[in-house]
Fold this sequence. Notes:
Blueprint: H1 9-13, E1 20-22, H2 31-39, E2 43-47, H3 53-66, H4 71-74, E3 77-82, H5 83-86, H6 91-97, E4 103-107, H7 112-120, E5 124-129, H8 135-140, E6 145-149, E7 155-158, H9 166-180, E8 185-189, H10 195-203, E9 208-211, H11 213-216, H12 225-232, E10 239-242, H13 244-248, E11 257-262, H14 265-270, H15 274-279, H16 282-294, H17 317-332
Parallel strand pairs: 1-2, 1-9, 2-3, 3-4, 4-5, 5-6, 6-8, 8-9
Antiparallel strand pairs: 7-11, 10-11
Amino acid sequence: MTHASLNTRFAQHFALTTPLALAPMALATGGALAAACAQAGALGLVGGGYGDLAWTQREYTLATELLKSDAAAHARLGCGFITWKLDENAQALDWVLTQKPCAVMLSFGDPRPYAARIAAAGAQLICQVQRLDQVPQALEAGAAVIVAQGGEAGGHGANALEGRSTFTLVPEIADYLAAHAPHTLLLAAGGVADGRGLAAALMLGADGALVGSRLWATQESLAATGAKTLATHTSGDGTARSAVFDILRRKNWPAPYDFRAIRNALHRQFEGHIAALQASPDAARAEYDAGVKAGDFTRAHATVGEAVGLIADIPPAAALIARITHQAQALLAP
Length: 334
Ligand SMILES: Cc1cc2nc3c(=O)[nH]c(=O)nc-3n(C[C@H](O)[C@H](O)[C@H](O)COP(=O)(O)O)c2cc1C
């Protein structure tokens, strides 16, 4: 039973028992994590990421399989994609739409070319934005939900020149939506890792929160065990946002996006020399590749945001969702 203070418009819209969404984290949010979150009453978005068809089919099918005897949880299953990658190949989106997801989340690019087919499949469109000036485009695409992502977030987001912080972006977009699109729902993303963060998001005018980093550090997440363990003893001071790992990973991200992860030794070596790294990346890529192969996170990336300082254990996702929910309830209780 949803506590009144958490029975928000977002919870009602998707028949959730807590106003939380699992972020569709590329390669980390597989079917087991999405299914566990949906069963725990949150929105479960599989991390379709860069749009790899085989990966998306495997993980989405796993989630469907895990939820086959729980229709209520299955109705909370969706998928997310990196929009600019869909512009190159949208096969994975088209396949997911045949599976009747409740929602599709698009981030990092223009959602409008995909809006009609998502709507035709009966899925709700969720658009993640990093700036107020991206909101009109998301509304034009017919977004049912806007996710306001602050620069604290793990993974990709807007860079230091263009990015915003969750604490100011959320209320500003809440005011904008109240004036221009009052039926459009709003989630806060970036830094929400416990009940304080969820309660704060609601106080700032959001209808819920999208959680990435904190759910990345759960048992069901597909992130490497060594990366999760490292996260449990890294403080919030220990991450940085830059282009370093995108260059090392040969990911051709367009402006204005860059990437927040743990600021390890290899990152520190190149963070002051981005142009030189871009010009001749081969030796650094060899170091990085060797680090990934060896599971050595002084060289390989561990993708978490500033919320890493609030991660002290690696629980099952359902236990974590219950913990966040109960803490928020207690804080919001009259
Ligand atoms: C490991 C990881 C991978 C991510 N991958 C994606 C992605 O593929 N697509 C996307 O829209 N957002 C991605 N994100 C960002 C999340 O959608 C979300 O904005 C972010 O996790 C929220 O901030 P938090 O990490 O502080 O919870 C990723 C985040 C993390 C931590």
